[in-house]
Amino acid sequence: MRVVFATVLTATLAAFSTSALAQKAYGPGVTDTEIKIGNTTPYSGPASGYATSGRIKAAYYNMINSKGGVNGRKIKYISYDDAYSPPKTMEQTRKLVEQDEVFALFGSIGTGPNAAIQKYLNQKDVPQLFISSGAERWNDPKTFPWTVPLYPSYIMEGRIAAKYFLQTKPDGKIALLHGSDDAGKDFVKGFKEGLGDKLSQVVAEKTFELSQPTVDAEVVALKYSGADMLLLMGTPKFGAQAIRKIAELKWKPVTYLAAVTSSIKSVLAPAGLENSTGIVSALSSKVPGDPRWSEAPDMKEFLAFVKEWSPSDDPTEATVVSGYVSAWLTAKVLSECGDNLTRENLLKVVRSQKDVTLPLAQPGVTFTITPEDYSGYKSLQMVRFNGQTWEPTGSLISAD
């Protein structure tokens, strides 16, 4: 009997041990104590206004680690400067994947930089998640299943901007100023789709290269087109330049500013708050500093986080909010993976996010990712700058 019992006990313990081991599955960069993730961010160069986003993500992961990490694993976050240069992005991304052996990339910034690495990462089955760009090319789950965006689609926002223009001035004359990159092209494509049979109201269109020093000449040309409405899409540097030049020319068009250019600290303040007053945009998130949200629990939590973990950063800056939301969602999906931290399971979890209310989301705005549709947002809140903050105006607008 003792021999039989001992044999059964040994077999039972062996089975339990095998079962316990089977419950854990790790991909590259994952151990019992660590999850290694990375991204590239323009800490220098023409888009360095987005650098704050990278710092906020680092601060958020430090906070998570101080509380024990994600399911007992600390997040090791590696973020390299790519200066918003696609060749540099490729170089730094190869380093992350082939030398640092990160588990996944989360929150890399920019349309051009992310486009440069999209094919490479998908060929290697490396997750390229919650990228800070709204280009339509990211919503292609069949061709690029490992690439999932976080930003609202530029095409969707462009359609919303067109709806606003047509509601505000049905017979207005419209001018367009945007970058010549994919982001600018997508935004304008959506805008023109939104105009429909009113496309003839576009009387002038100017593009600019991200490498050029200013957009002053383009703004002057648009003013003399006779337009009384302006769509402005670009990086923070050019957004600030354009707004300042518009004021110098004493031109007063109804101006729509793309959400990616809506930072108060990086765009509106350098352009002059008085020059920016009256500009409109469409946002997915609440604006810190707006008194209407001062008692909202998610706003209180966010402000407390910035004060403790990144006190040198301005919580009203749009890039601080976007970095915070990106890091929150990253920690959420990593947590939901449990001990099955393979790249395949991570992608499965990401593609199962349904009606998620992200931190600081405008009331009614939710986030959903499915295996067939990677465009997480379907509606945005119109806002107007009142000289101090972005103030909601009207109800949510859908791109449909």
Please give a structural write-up.
Helix 3 packs parallel to helix 4 and helix 7 (216-223) packs across helix 8. The protein is an alpha/beta fold. The protein contains 13 helices and 14 strands. The chain is globular and about 65 Å long. A 5-stranded parallel sheet has the order 3-2-4-5-6, with helices on both faces. A 4-stranded parallel sheet has the order 8-7-9-10, sandwiched between helices. The chain has a 3-stranded antiparallel sheet with strand order 11-13-14. Mean pLDDT is 92; it is low at 1-22. Strand 9 (229-233), helix 8 (236-248) and strand 10 (254-257) form a beta-alpha-beta unit. The longest helix is centred in the N-terminal third of the chain and has 21 residues, at 2-22. It folds into 2 domains: 34-152 and 293-369, Response regulator (Rossmann fold); 155-283 and 382-398, Rossmann fold (3-Layer(aba) Sandwich).
Distance between the termini: 74 Å
Q: Supply the helix-strand structural class.
A: alpha/beta
**What is the CATH class of the largest domain?**
Alpha Beta
| Named CATH topology of the largest domain | Rossmann fold
Overall geometric form = globular
What percentage of residues falls in helices of 4 or more residues? 40-55%
- CATH architecture title of the largest domain: 3-Layer(aba) Sandwich
**Tally of separate helices:** 13
Q: Sheet bearing the most strands, described?
A: 5 strands, parallel
The neighbouring-strand order within the major sheet is 3-2-4-5-6
Counted beta strands: 14
SSE string, helix = H, strand = E?
HEEHEHEHEEHEHEHEHEHHEHHEHEE
Low-pLDDT segments: 1-22
Mean pLDDT: 92
What percent of residues are in strands?
Answer: 15-25%
- In CATH terms, the superfamily of the largest domain is Response regulator
The tally of structural domains comes to: 2
